[in-house]
Design a protein that fits this description.
The structure is a single chain. 33% of the residues lie in helices and 19% in strands. It is built from 23 helices and 28 strands. Strands 3-4-6-9-10-11-12-13 form an eight-stranded parallel beta barrel, surrounded by six helices. Strands 16-15-14-17-28 form a five-stranded parallel sheet. Strands 19-26-20-21-22 form a five-stranded parallel sheet. Strand 14, helix 16 and strand 15 form a beta-alpha-beta unit. Helix 1 packs parallel to helix 2, helix 2 crosses helix 4 and helix 4 runs parallel beside helix 7. It is globular, with a radius of gyration of 27 Å. It starts with 12 loop residues before the first strand and ends with a helix.
Length: 660
């Protein structure tokens, strides 16, 4: 018999007459590949299909709106209040079901945050009359008087939830996720703070829970008892001084108990900006940071409980389930980073799992382009083109110069496609520039990823690895490759333009990452980009007094705004002094002379650390350019950017080999 390493994680979960094949649920993700009528496309189906093929028990589609007249907060979302959606839903359901997973659809209504409905000229409602407010969707409603939702509209809305669920069932879905958390309509009705109505739909606990219970009961009436309901709610309104408590969350869960098949415990409110990095945990929070709320709920209900938030370690998930504190675990970003997470864990290949970095590249890509991406998974958002890809007929000899993020990805994909690969790396270890961050507490998953990628490369029989080997023209000439992929990276800029840059108390960020003893007790960091800010946090965690000088008006987070918010929160937590609009003009033996918006300042320091940018090794790339018929340069040696760019360019360079 095969000895299962994680037996509890892969023990089926029986819900009524339906059995989930394991305890891993793909949490809702939306905004993806919809047509002009907000209906799913083949590309959307391919995206969700990857999660079903990867072994998740349930795959949940996000952003399904039950009322597109009164309840939309964003332009893009699946419209579930028309029969026209059934064809598109069937496309999604088939893509998921045929791989043995259960298709689930998130049902939501924005309520008093339905800004898109308001902008489109439609009436929106709140549990009680109030002025519009919020930081995201609500920000577009400031100054708007939102009336109390009349009882007849409440009843109509309950029916819309049920009708939407029925359409999902007709299309082949086996479950819906009723969203009663994160500040959506049902959560507004449940709130001890917001819902102060004087009728039977508000005030005390029974009245506040009347609408969500009615929604779930009506879905069961319309769709049958075997149609599953996953009820997601915020078990605590974290980071919200005006929110409700975990004790309130327990009371809510006890009321919904018995009316649904799963109680799915998240936290927070999307309109409370500070809660974002807890609802979607940043890299600065511990793994499974929100489990405690689900565990408390589990003590008080009979319905199986789902935990969500920062799960990426299969052993932690196994231990969590073995302890009985919850019954299943939902993952979102973890299954973006690696849709095959369940299959790899089941086969005992946990070291081969791409664990989410919690870097928010997926969210940032979503905000910028309305499509998903991932720093370490180049296929995300491009599943359809990869689904029908064929292995090239021409097998070639490929020289990969550089063993960092981009080089390793290029080597692995080239080998996977049948090419013979030689990877040369100047240093004695694969991993590139990011190896310097291996001891950073909040970068443990990055370190794990680099280690895993290096192991994959070293153990691949089609890749010859030559460490301590510089990529030169002479070497390339001796190898005679058909293809060269240059992934040589970049090097830190030394601030020779600042007098005193060569003093004994001045050191580069990379050197300090490798050896914290090079940083004194009182530190000034030159440069407020991600390198400088994250190093500042690392130093503060390790007991240093940190000041960051940044010439611009705001730190530069390389387009990753949400990770930037998480970084800024940590800067506040650790009392790091961030001085923007401040330029270093001279480094002295006891600190930095600088010019700020209010004139000249002096910042005392034992150590001055520079993090003022990276310079692409383009000259070294040019030395290799004409030693093979096919040539690609990838990653930071083109333009220093981020892990996502490096991963993607390495992957697609390998896929472009042999096209002609």
């Amino acid at each position: 018999m095969y000895r299962m390493k994680y037996p509890n994680l892969f023990t089926p979960l029986k819900l009524g007459n339906i059995t989930l094949r394991n305890r891993i649920i793909s949490a809702p993700q939306g905004f993806l590949h919809l047509d002009a009528e907000s209906m799913p496309t083949q590309a959307a189906a391919a995206y969700y299909e990857e999660k079903a093929r990867g072994g998740a028990a349930v795959v949940t589609i996000g952003e399904g709106y039950v009322d597109t007249i009164h309840g939309i907060d964003i332009p893009k979302g699946i419209h579930l209040d028309t029969d026209a959606c059934i064809g598109g839903l069937a496309l999604l359901a088939d893509a998921i079901n045929k791989h043995g997973a259960i298709a689930s659809m998130e049902l939501q209504h924005a309520g008093m945050y339905a800004s898109e409905s308001y902008i489109n000229g439609n009436q929106i409602y709140a549990p009680v009359e109030r002025m519009g407010e919020g930081t995201k969707a609500g920000a577009r409603l400031h100054g708007v008087l939102i009336p109390e939702m009349p009882e007849e509209v409440i009843l109509e809305t309950i029916e819309k939830f049920a009708e939407a669920a029925l359409r999902c069932k007709q299309a082949g879905f086996g479950m819906v996720l009723v969203h009663g958390g994160h500040g959506w309509l049902l959560n507004q009705m449940m709130s001890t703070v917001i819902n102060t109505r004087k009728d039977k739909w508000g005030g005390n606990l029974e009245n506040r829970m009347r609408m969500p219970i009615a929604v779930c009961d009506r879905i069961k009436e319309v769709c049958g008892k075997d149609f599953l309901i996953d009820f997601r709610f915020s078990a605590a309104d974290v980071c919200n001084p005006n929110g409700y408590t975990p004790e309130d969350g327990i009371d809510m869960a006890k009321m919904i108990d018995g009316h649904v098949d799963l109680i799915h415990c998240s936290v927070g409110n999307h309109e409370v900006e500070e809660s974002f990095v807890v609802v979607h945990p940043s890299m600065f929070l511990e793994d499974a940071c929100n489990l405690k709320y689900a565990a408390e709920v589990k003590k008080h209900v009979k319905t199986p409980v789902v935990a969500v938030g920062a799960f990426s370690d299969p052993q932690l998930m196994e231990d969590t389930l073995a302890s009985g504190v919850v019954d299943a675990i939902a993952m979102a970003r973890g299954l973006i980073a690696d849709p095959d997470f369940p299959l790899k864990a089941r086969q005992g290949k946990e070291e081969d799992i791409n664990r989410c970095l919690r870097c928010y590249q997926c969210f940032s890509g979503l905000l910028d382009t309305k499509q998903f991406c991932c720093a370490i998974n180049p296929v995300i958002g491009r599943e359809l083109e990869n689904k029908f890809d064929t292995i090239p007929y021409q097998r070639k000899k490929v020289l990969v110069a550089g063993g960092g993020i981009s080089g390793m990805e290029a080597a692995l994909e080239s080998a996977k496609r049948g090419h013979n690969v030689i990877l040369v790396e100047k240093k004695g270890k694969l991993g590139g520039a990011l190896l310097c961050e291996s001891e950073v507490s909040f970068k443990k998953n990055l370190d794990r990823y680099l280690t895993m990628q290096a192991k994959r490369v070293m153990e691949n029989s089609q890749i010859e690895v030559r460490l301590n080997t510089e990529a030169t023209g002479e070497l390339a000439e001796s190898i005679e490759p058909d293809v060269i992929i240059a992934a040589l990276g970049a090097r830190p800029v030394i601030p020779t333009f600042i007098p005193g840059y060569d003093r004994a108390n001045v050191v580069g960020a990379e050197e300090v990452y490798y050896d914290l003893t090079k940083a004194g007790k009182k530190v000034v960091l030159l440069g407020g980009g991600l390198v400088g800010c994250e190093l500042g946090i690392h130093l503060a965690i390790n007991g240093r007094d940190v000041t960051i000088l940044e010439m611009a008006s705001t730190p530069n987070f390389a387009g990753n705004m949400l990770h930037g918010e998480a970084v800024m929160a940590q800067i506040g937590i650790y009392g790091i002094h961030l001085m923007t609009n401040t330029k270093a003009v001279e480094i002295l033996e006891n600190g930095v002379k600088a010019e700020g918006s209010e004139g000249e300042v002096f910042v005392e320091a034992d150590t001055v650390i520079y993090a003022v940018g990276q310079k692409a090794l383009s000259d070294e790339v040019d030395k290799l350019r004409f030693y093979a018929p096919e040539f690609y340069s990838v990653g930071d040696c083109n333009l220093p950017a981020n892990i996502a760019k490096a991963t993607k360019e390495g992957y697609y360079a390998a896929r472009d080999i042999g096209r002609v």
